[in-house]
Amino acid sequence: MQKKALVVGVSGITGGNLAETLLAHDWTVYGLARTPGTGPDGLIPVAADLLNLDSLNTALAAVSPTHVFITSWMRNDTEAENIRVNSLMVRNLLTAVSPKKTVQHVALVTGLKHYLGPFEAYAKAGTLPLTPVREEHPRLTIENFYYAQEDEVYAAAERDGFTWSIHRPHTVIGKAVGNMMNMGTTLAVYASICKETGRSFQFPGSAAQWNGISDVTDARLLAQHMLWAATTEAAHNQAFNVANGDVFRWNWLWLQLANWFGIEARGFDGAIRPLEAELAHDGALWAAIAAKYGLTEPDLNRLASAWHTDLDLSRPIEVMTDMAKSRKLGFTGYQDTRDSFVDLFTRLRAERLIP
């Protein structure tokens, strides 16, 4: 049977890379977003509002997916509102695809906030897990919209009989424009501004992150993992951590990133120096850089998500991800982290998103 994927959030880092991977494996791929825009050759765009069930029913009337990949979420001012909105998005989607009874598997992408806590209590005392984080860790005893999203998937699976997988990546590194959590492109923009202005490439985070062990998740590897879980029976009805498979310290990687751009790197100097404040007044500067070098995106805020990079780099503990569960079940994917950043920077330059 021809596999038909509905990739929800196809304009984001995870969804876009997943669509490319599925198309390369000869899947039929529908890409759903509020404004899907352009995508890889072969992608069938679907425009719909996940908060509007009527919109979904209309948009998906002619779509009968065998597999649904949910990579989308919406940030709100409070965790209570995050729970309400993001659970509704998943519930509406799975309600809309339910009547045709064609769905065999649903994959949901969440992340390490499953272990570290939601935005309101992120990596704070009382929520800090033992690391490396493992899937067996129980849920935290605080509200978390990831839990609400999972519960919607479990309920729909019970109702409709499909299998599921939950994917918990660390910070995802990959190309997207307009994404809400985009460390790789944020650092590329910051480094480009430093190069243009002569500023030092100052590490913005904590001593724990500068000196501790960390890992990240390449969007291409996450796509491979989602494809593997969707098509491997032993991986069905399981939650998985997903990371590159190597570890690093920022006190090494920061210099590697600076060297690629040919700029001066400055490490942790005793204080957290938020990147959000550093870039707060650089909108006009970036627009001028874009005009000077003929870049395709002059809006700094569509490339950089400094608040999210600060969230990750200011954590008070080192954070890394245990991948033993996936390895035992046969997933052997691996990605060198330095290459993740270099490949991204090279692509951003080739597509004229950075000078």
UniProtKB/TrEMBL annotation:
Name the source's superkingdom. Answer: Bacteria
InterPro entries named in the record: NAD(P)-bd_dom_sf, PRISE-like_Rossmann-fold
Q: Which residues form the PRISE-like Rossmann-fold domain?
A: 66-355
Which SUPFAM superfamilies does the UniProt record give?
NAD(P)-binding Rossmann-fold domains
The family database entries (PANTHER family) matched by this protein are listed as: 3-OXO-DELTA(4,5)-STEROID 5-BETA-REDUCTASE
Q: What is this protein called?
A: Nucleoside-diphosphate-sugar epimerase
Report the source organism: Spirosoma oryzae
